[in-house]
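Lest this sound abstract, we let one protein speak, letters for residues, whole numbers for local backbone shapes, and leave readers to judge:
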Amino acid sequence: MAFTLPPLPYEPAALEPTIDAQTMTIHHDKHHNTYVTNLNAAVQGTEFENMEIGELIANLDRVPAEKRTAVRNNGGGHWNHSMFWQIMGPGGGGAPTGEVAQAIDQAFGSFDAMKEQVNKAGAGRFGSGWAWVIIGADGALAVTSTPNQDNPLMTGVAEQTGTPILGVDVWEHAYYLKYQNRRPDYLAAWWDAVNWDAVNERFRQARG
């Protein structure tokens, strides 16, 4: 069964003014769709085409060397963006709530302190990539970043491996139409779009 492009869970304009409708449309319909198309081409006719995407990218060492780069880049892009659309939503932002709010306070001291770390990781990522909040091996939240479409599920590619519960895309295609080269401005504004209910759900699932 081929991998498929998930629909946006809201209208492209729903996150304005934080993210404009044109950026959302191009980002989802063009960029994410290309990752899905290329991933399907890479795994067609192999045992990997029926694998769940999270399992696939967590087991890249099982993918033949000649296909591994394509699966890493495009499978990572598919997983990352599928998560990205879900953890944003209209009427989002504000302070975190629920269990994840408690975990943030325990790990970072405050939400503002966590935001500062995430924004620093995103702004400091050279070229393209992602900044993440993960549940680490010790069960605590931590901030890390990855290049390109890598993520912390891929062993050995992040500063710290773990299960992402939140990630912010810092590829230029995620923000350039509105923010141009002002990545820090995009990062500061992005928090107004976060869907904390979705982040809490990812937190609960990861904790089991």
